[in-house]
Amino acid sequence: MTASLAEPNLPKTKRGQQTRAAILDAAERVIGAEGFSAASIAGITREAGIAQGTFYIYFESKEQVFRELVLEMGRLTRENLAAAVSGTNSRLEAERAGLLAFLNFVRGRPSLYSIVEEARFVDLEAYRAYFGAFAQAYAQNLDAASAKGQLRPGNTEIRAWALMGMAKTLGERFALWDPDSDLEGIVDDVLDMIEHGLAP
Amino acid sequence: MTASLAEPNLPKTKRGQQTRAAILDAAERVIGAEGFSAASIAGITREAGIAQGTFYIYFESKEQVFRELVLEMGRLTRENLAAAVSGTNSRLEAERAGLLAFLNFVRGRPSLYSIVEEARFVDLEAYRAYFGAFAQAYAQNLDAASAKGQLRPGNTEIRAWALMGMAKTLGERFALWDPDSDLEGIVDDVLDMIEHGLAP
């Protein structure tokens, strides 16, 4: 991971931090709705209710605000999942709680997929950093659970990517495209497979 | 699925079919390398070695050739997987053969992801049709195996999307981004999880 993908240098004052956050919020709405190419800095500052010159105090370009937005959405999603699994007593309980929280998060925030998936084309390094950070945290959790004997032994890096891919596609199919689907029921079905496998 | 996503009306003559296929091949290379927005019909016809007017005998627009390309790549991928699993004797053997064939296919054809994932933004209906057709065929195979007692009972539609999501993300991470990774070893690890689950 390069220096440019590290934690951003946040403004020193609270007011500065609020303005930066307001720009990222506006960028999420504008780029989520219009796509990266069609979105403009003028549109983002109008949405944020700030002067266009103010944008450049915090970001250099549309590319940079997009990259920060992708990484910020990753941090937000990981925090949300970490909170959801914090009260669980085993890895399999955590898988259930984490998947349900993720699917609910996706349903409530449809711009997540629009923006992160567009990063594949706009900023591949940010896209890979987004999923790489997820997979790394996921594999660490699987390692910790394995050390406690809570999981069948196996390669945790590969499992992390496999489980993440499952969540990603289920989120798209059921949380995003099918607003009436029963997410708890889906999680029950998926967890049965994750826990017991498909062998009869 | 709308009429426009049905099997295309293929040209009647063999020569016409070859020209249409040459345009799709060229579109795959040009759009795969440059992206949909930057690619032009002039660039595609130059790559195909045909006059620009010839393009319009077969396709109405860049949007239409892109849609046909996405659906054609879906048919090709499904045919490739169907061939790979045709000699297997159980669903779990078929899962192994199918996943390995898919990962090898992705490694040999990096434009698959560039094009299909860009469809999410260029032609969401084609993107959904691509994965919908996959999931439908997958669920039918799981149903048939369940009827023979080869699988633990469960919701085959949800399982199909979950397994597809796993393959998609593993393909991106290991086949596409990591050209030296050992795909057979990865399939062994994933199949252990698919077969037996994560419970100790």
From TrEMBL, chains A, B:
User: Does the UniProt entry include the keyword DNA-binding?
Assistant: yes
**Swiss-Prot/TrEMBL keywords:** DNA-binding
**PROSITE patterns, per the entry:** HTH_TETR_1, HTH_TETR_2
According to the entry, DNA is bound by residues in 40-59
An annotated Gene Ontology molecular function: DNA binding
What are the HTH tetR-type domain coordinates in residue numbering? Answer: 17-77
Q: Which Pfam families match?
A: TetR_N (PF00440)
Q: What is this protein called?
A: TetR family transcriptional regulator
